[in-house]
Write a structure and sequence with these properties.
Strand order of the largest sheet: 6-5-7-8-9
Strand content: 25-35%
Structural class: alpha/beta
Distance between the termini: 47 Å
Shape: elongated
Low-confidence stretches: none
Radius of gyration: 20 Å
Helix content: 25-40%
Number of strands: 9
Order of helices and strands: HHEEHEEEHEEEEH
Largest sheet: 5 strands, mixed
Length: 145
């Protein structure tokens, strides 16, 4: 992709790329053409389309939204009735632990009923119970609930 971008810039040519990978398209494209539900096509400078909210129109359902800050789509999950207090100092581990917890119906906050501590992807504890994976973490939470 970088080679194509460099060639287009150096040669003054346009490259048309059709992709379902919206995140990659956002990072590489100077201009986007979006095919919205109902066959409507909108086009514009990438940043203009993002900031105008047009990417939220790609999905008919409100269960998927576009986060302008991260440039990513996210599922809107119902608020979990079970809560956990996540302790994790690594931003990447925290992101993926939160992803697994939210997807599994847990609310994540500082005052959760059960404490989950993530030191590494293979060193996790749930209420003092040691786990060696995120799958193990979710299993241990089911026991705790």
């Amino acid at each position: 992709m970088q080679l194509l971008h460099r060639l287009a810039y150096n040669e003054g040519k346009a490259i048309l790329l059709s992709s379902h990978d919206v995140s990659l398209s956002l990072s590489l494209s100077d201009r986007l053409w979006l095919l919205l539900p109902g066959g409507v096509i909108v086009d514009g400078q990438t940043e203009d389309l993002v900031l105008s909210g047009r990417l939220d129109e790609l999905f008919l359902s409100r269960s998927v939204t576009f986060d302008m800050l991260t440039g990513e789509f996210a599922a809107v999950l119902p608020a979990g009735h079970r809560s956990v207090a996540l302790r994790c100092s690594d931003p990447s581990l925290s992101h993926w632990a939160t992803n697994a917890l939210l997807r599994s119906g847990y609310a994540v906050g500082d005052d959760g009923k059960v404490e989950v501590s993530v030191v590494s992807a293979t060193d996790i504890s749930v209420g003092g119970r040691r786990c060696s994976s995120f799958a193990g973490m979710l299993g241990a939470l089911e026991v705790e609930s």
